[in-house]
Amino acid sequence: MTENKTQPTEVAVSDFLATVQVKRRQEDAKVLLEMYCSVTNLPAVMWGPSIIGFGTSSYSYESGRQGTMPTAAFSPRKANLTLYVGGRFNGAAELYSILGKHKKSVACLYINKLADVDLKVLREIVEKDYLHSKH
What we know:
The chain is α+β, with helices and mostly antiparallel strands.
């Protein structure tokens, strides 16, 4: 069985954030870092070269593949802020409909800049997704 490519690292989150070249993206990432720390009450850990994760969750597929991933995570990618949140928590559709400018896939939320969204709604999405993921 192969191991996940994305594993926790010893890199300090602050060191990683210092490498984010777009100043606005760096500042938005710091706001998200504070939000995620507050919501999860867990320390931030770098997963791979660019994902900031909180906590760990195990998963297994019917195929037998299993692994560990952060329970909550985001990444300040070059193209956008990527938040690893789903839509299976109660009230998800309504929250996403009032969030503001964003794109959504099954497991990711893509935001150009935090100024495009309602931060209170975003925090509620992160919180509800985190609580749902813990169970």
